[in-house]
Amino acid sequence: MRTTITVNGEARALDLDPRTTLLDALREHLGLTGTKKGCDHGQCGACTVLVNGTRINSCLSLAAMHDGDQVTTIEGVGTPEQLHPLQKAFLTEDAFQCGYCTPGQICSAIGMLAEVAENWPSQETADLNAKVALTQPEIRERMSGNICRCSAYPQIVAAIQSASEEMA
């Protein structure tokens, strides 16, 4: 099946088996190995990417569903010369140990901060009519789909808070 997906700003035409997940298309067909295959069941968040600005688990989505979509992986977030504010904050706050979950954590955090900017409520949001306050419990709730086996959660929350202040 012929599918064209714009990945990190570049249109990529792919001939894929219709059963190919977006994760496998990125890793196996495009060589973008920053996105990790963790559980392959949508439970860990290691495969999180942004599709048209919204965070998704790429292991649960077929590549063919994204014909014409804009996909951003960790490779498209920043460069070594110019890191994204979240990448800088993860380094500054020491928000990773093994680093396996970090690409998914960063992509999820980018999507989460966009949701907060649009004032999307979460389970933690007390007042649905007020502007969402980016508290530690709010961040923890919104990032709960991304697991860190090394338990760097306090540093991840601190990095997200720090980056959100810089990006504001």
Structure description:
Pfam families: Fer2, Fer2_2. InterPro entries: 2Fe-2S-bd, 2Fe-2S-bd_dom_sf, 2Fe-2S_ferredoxin-like_sf, 2Fe-2S_ferredoxin-type, 2Fe2S_fd_BS, Aldehyde_Oxdr_Iron-Sulfur, Beta-grasp_dom_sf. Keywords: 2Fe-2S, Iron, Iron-sulfur, Metal-binding, Oxidoreductase. GO terms for molecular function: 2 iron, 2 sulfur cluster binding; metal ion binding; oxidoreductase activity, acting on the aldehyde or oxo group of donors. Residues 1-77 form the 2Fe-2S ferredoxin-type domain. The protein starts with a strand and ends with a helix. The chain is of the alpha+beta class and 168 residues long. Helices cover 32% and strands 14% of the residues. The protein is built from 5 helices and 5 strands. The chain has 2 domains: 2-75, Beta-grasp domain (Ubiquitin-like (UB roll), Roll), CATH 3.10.20.30; 85-167, DNA polymerase, domain 1, CATH 1.10.150.120. The protein is globular and about 45 Å long. A hairpin with a 2-residue loop joins β1 (2-7) and β2 (10-15). It has a 5-stranded mixed sheet with strand order 2-1-5-3-4, sandwiched between helices. The mean pLDDT is 97. It has helices at residues 22-29, 85-92, 102-117, 136-142, 153-167; strands at 2-7, 10-15, 48-51, 54-57, 70-72. The longest helix has 16 residues, at 102-117.
